[in-house]
């Protein structure tokens, strides 16, 4: 009996010992790989008095993890204060354009360790009810971040809403403004496709794109159709230029962001005065999705939601030709104002 108990005890100790050694080896490998992976990111002088401090990316990810725990109620306010996290008003806003690639741009910029994104569209400046709640309400909708980081939010409706430029100017007259655009006809069809999908989910019928985009009485482009009106970029931009100089805007080529994202992101880094940190390592092409996905590190990858990159319905080629001819003079003026030549057809 005693011999059996001793044998059983030895077996249990052997199993526990193996588990302990295995766990130790896993932790060593995990920490070692993270330390090798993460570069040091110097935050440059525009971010304040502590600008020369250096923050490892792993430390920044820890801060974001701590914030997540705080929001779940697993971390005290004292812990958040201890780690210098604050809620800041955005120093840059992606103001549009709807279906231009605003979500993709925001997620890709979030790869940068000096950038913290507001995950949801807040609609503060374009929604009268939200705007009436005041700037403190808006600030509390922002994520926690280091004082040296910049917060970015995106609400595509800002670009086309008349009251927004003045409201943003009153908050911060020197704010940086990002506009991501696509070829206007393609963007209009993408806009239509999103609305069509929503109708189909509710088992509702919807007009064909051609019937909405072309006025049946005049056979001319229907500028009352919102998807067409939104694509007249220069009309909306002129309203913004009453409040902000063109130097405070950066135009992102949404079509190029799909096929060749890194050069576009590098231009945005430069515009925001950020040290270059986003590299080809952070972007990999997913052949199944047909889009670039994001690689934060060897453990965490992310692709955009399945609703992105919807297949567009077939559109009458003559309607596409008519729309492109209509948009052409507006596009030329847009190039002239912004200095960004996009060579749309």
UniProtKB/TrEMBL annotation:
Q: Does the keyword Transferase apply?
A: yes
Q: Which UniProt keywords apply?
A: Disulfide bond, Glycoprotein, Golgi apparatus, Membrane, Signal-anchor, Transferase, Transmembrane, Transmembrane helix
Q: Which reaction does it catalyse?
A: alpha-D-glucosaminyl-[heparan sulfate](n) + 3'-phosphoadenylyl sulfate = 3-sulfo-alpha-D-glucosaminyl-[heparan sulfate](n) + adenosine 3',5'-bisphosphate + H(+)
State its location(s): Golgi apparatus membrane
- Documented EC number(s): 2.8.2.-
Task: Show the disulfide pairing.
Answer: 293-303
Please provide, alphabetically and separated by semicolons, the GO molecular function terms listed in this UniProt record.
[heparan sulfate]-glucosamine 3-sulfotransferase activity
Q: Which InterPro entries match?
A: NST/OST, P-loop_NTPase, Sulfotransferase_dom
Its record classes its membrane topology as:
Single-pass type II membrane protein
EC main class here is: transferase
The positions flagged as active site in the entry are 99
Ranges where the Sulfotransferase domain occurs: 90-334
Question: Which domain of life does the protein's organism represent?
Answer: Eukaryota
Entry similarity comment: Belongs to the sulfotransferase 1 family.
Q: What is this protein called?
A: Sulfotransferase
| Classification of source organism | Eukaryota, Metazoa, Chordata, Craniata, Vertebrata
